[in-house]
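Postdoc handover notes: sequence design on the structure in folder B. Input tokens:
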């Protein structure tokens, strides 16, 4: 055993060229510098951490973890950005890695609603750069310290990175063995994207969704790590991974993740590959050293050096890291408090895209100490309208506690909070996630105890999905919508039908329900029976059978139907006797001005959409670069203002207001909400009750 471990230590400490590790370092630093003003949120730090942030509910991993003031948070973003640049150029490498890693994880732990797998991966890679010697080639540190320049690194440096990237692919493939994924229910309608256009010649959209997206995605993830690992198959892995990540970069708004995965796949190449590539560049571009790497005391050289205590420590820590990463994605049997319909918080399980939620309805109510009931608008005291909190029991508890705190501040003593969340998982029926009769604000939650207020996914109804798809095709059109609902015995759904939906019906597919209308009229419905629901009033649907009830609503918007009929009639008249200029207002007396104006708006929208779709590449590129310039410009302005405020103090109120207006001018087009609107929402929070 001792001999085997010594052999392992020697193998992990075997010398390797540092050039391909340096390439990965440079690419990571550049991509993170691009990512920080965008996906990390530096360009809207004033919105997220502004003066009104005390009125906003937060979702940190640790309850006693809080953000600093706006100026300090923006300053941390600045340090994070500069440290990413430092990592890329290899200047004060270890210090910049330590700064980047600590600040990055601080931001990461602050807000669970923004967690995703690639953000988690960035943090892991930052930690790996911290503990490895990626600055021993192509770095400023190497120019300043000749003992570092072009020296070997121990093999465990490469083992850690290769293992981590291999695990991302392989575990993503293992998670895709889920029956929902292999059956094609996780990612719907992706085949409509233009990246699949070449496949339309020989495949239908349904076939592409199943075979290419789901089965193909599973096969690629489960095999990519192996293809990249072996020399003879690496070129195949490069082709498939490059195609896969290029398509992802176009289909999903996931920042630098596709490019980070493209850059890190080269870590599987021979350790001197980057040096070989640089040597083939034309004279003048190969400024880096091309000579063989020099000796490094951190490595073990055969017949020259023997293992020391630091080699054994490095080997043990490498094994511990690998073990921890193998175990963590399957550790949910320990951290039961985070388990709902999915296991654990979204982010570190590598279950990318396996679970797709469709939000239908969230109802939040409260009762004061006297039992008086009130209602809270979903999204109250939240700057973001994202509802990810509602899919995880731990964040739902945090939100309920925050709402209780806000209500107490408003003078409501000892309130109880009840949250009723309706969602559909992977095209199933809409169903409630949590027991609406449990007071979540006073619930004793523990990370190691399963939350008993969560309700299970009605997986026994999964085989209904094909029939639901057929019913959707039958009923859904421009003016008609259909919603499928499943509910537990003894529970009820309270629903309100708007006035426009004058022809709304409810039909039962399974079980038995009792429909209670405000007028006091109760109607019992069994399988196959249908009832027209009156608009403009609340009604309740009680499940009175001993089994789960399944029913569906068909909503017909009578206002839209009438409007579409008038628009179609007007369009036909214009086809027979066309107006010379479709954007010019008609002067006909017998025409409805509203219909004429609406038709003109539709025609103008078509022209704009056509121009946007067929805009020349140069214009699209210029528009893209302009948006990025605005993002970075605003980030740097925020950085300048925060550093000035911390060093010299804040200026007077008038100057701050002027600077705020100037910052608003640089808000990117992707930020649909202005900071002032967010502030106004929080100042008027009482209106949301």
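Designed sequence:
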């Amino acid at each position: 055993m001792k001999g085997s471990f010594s052999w392992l230590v020697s193998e992990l400490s075997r010398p390797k060229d540092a050039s391909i590790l340096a390439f990965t370092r440079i690419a990571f630093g550049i991509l993170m510098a691009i990512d920080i003003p965008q996906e990390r949120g530096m360009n809207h730090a004033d919105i997220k951490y502004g003066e009104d942030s005390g009125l906003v509910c937060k979702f940190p991993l640790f309850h006693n973890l809080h953000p600093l003031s706006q100026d300090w948070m923006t300053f941390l973003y600045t340090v994070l950005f500069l440290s990413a640049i430092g990592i890329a150029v290899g200047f004060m490498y270890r210090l910049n890695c330590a700064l980047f890693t600590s600040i990055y994880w601080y931001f990461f732990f602050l807000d669970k609603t923004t967690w995703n797998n690639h953000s988690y991966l960035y943090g892991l890679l930052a930690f790996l750069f911290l503990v490895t010697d990626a600055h021993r080639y192509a770095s400023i540190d190497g120019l300043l310290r000749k003992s570092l320049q072009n020296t070997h690194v121990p093999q465990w440096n490469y083992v850690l990175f290769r293992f981590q990237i291999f695990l991302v692919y392989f575990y993503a493939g293992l998670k895709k063995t889920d029956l929902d994924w292999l059956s094609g229910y996780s990612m719907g309608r992706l085949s409509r994207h233009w990246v699949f256009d070449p496949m339309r010649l020989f495949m239908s959209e349904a076939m592409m969704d199943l075979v290419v997206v789901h089965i193909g995605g599973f096969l690629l993830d489960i095999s990519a790590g192996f293809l990249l690992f072996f020399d003879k198959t690496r070129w195949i892995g490069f082709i498939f991974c490059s195609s896969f990540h290029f398509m992802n970069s176009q289909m999903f708004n996931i920042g630098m993740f596709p490019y980070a995965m493209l850059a890190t796949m080269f870590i599987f190449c021979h350790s001197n590959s980057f040096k070989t590539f640089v040597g083939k560049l034309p004279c003048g571009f190969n400024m880096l050293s091309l000579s063989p790497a020099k000796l490094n005391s951190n490595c073990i050289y055969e017949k020259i050096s023997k293992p020391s205590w630091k080699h054994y420590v490095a080997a043990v820590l490498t094994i511990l890291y690998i073990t921890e990463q193998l175990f963590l994605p399957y550790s949910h049997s320990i951290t039961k408090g985070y388990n709902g319909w999915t296991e654990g918080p979204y982010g570190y399980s590598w279950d990318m895209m396996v679970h797709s939620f469709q939000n239908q309805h969230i109802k939040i109510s409260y009762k004061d100490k006297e039992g008086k009931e009130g209602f809270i608008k979903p999204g109250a005291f939240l700057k973001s309208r994202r509802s990810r909190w509602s899919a995880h029991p731990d964040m739902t508890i945090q939100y309920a506690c925050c709402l209780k705190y806000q209500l107490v501040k408003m003078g409501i003593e000892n309130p109880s909070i009840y949250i009723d969340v309706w969602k559909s998982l992977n095209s199933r029926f809409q169903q409630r996630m949590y027991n609406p009769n449990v007071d979540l604000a006073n619930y004793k939650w523990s990370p190691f105890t399963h939350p008993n207020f969560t309700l299970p996914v009605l997986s026994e109804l999964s085989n209904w999905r094909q029939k639901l798809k057929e019913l959707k095709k039958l009923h859904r059109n421009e003016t008609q919508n259909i919603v499928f609902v499943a509910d537990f015995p003894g529970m009820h759904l309270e629903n309100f039908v708007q006035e426009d939906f004058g022809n709304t019906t409810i039909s039962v597919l399974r079980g038995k329900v009792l429909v209670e209308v405000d007028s006091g009229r109760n109607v019992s419905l069994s399988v196959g029976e249908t009832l027209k629901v009156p608009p403009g009033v609340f009604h309740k649907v009680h499940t009175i059978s001993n089994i789960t009830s399944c029913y569906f609503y068909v909503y017909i918007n009578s206002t839209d139907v009438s409007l579409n009929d008038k628009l179609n009639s007007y369009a036909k008249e214009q086809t027979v006797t066309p107006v010379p200029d479709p954007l010019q207002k008609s002067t006909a007396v017998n025409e409805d001005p509203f219909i004429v104006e609406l038709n003109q708006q539709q025609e103008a929208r078509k022209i704009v959409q056509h121009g946007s779709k067929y805009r020349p590449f140069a214009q699209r590129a210029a528009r893209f670069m302009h948006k990025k310039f605005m993002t970075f410009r605003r980030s740097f302005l925020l950085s300048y203002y925060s550093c000035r405020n911390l060093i010299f103090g804040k200026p007077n109120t008038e100057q701050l207001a002027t600077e705020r207006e100037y910052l608003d001018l640089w808000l990117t087009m992707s930020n649909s909400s202005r900071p002032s609107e967010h502030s106004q929402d929080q100042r008027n929070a009482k209106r949301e009750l």
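Context for whoever picks this up: Residues 356-459 form one domain. Don't rerun without checking with the PI first.
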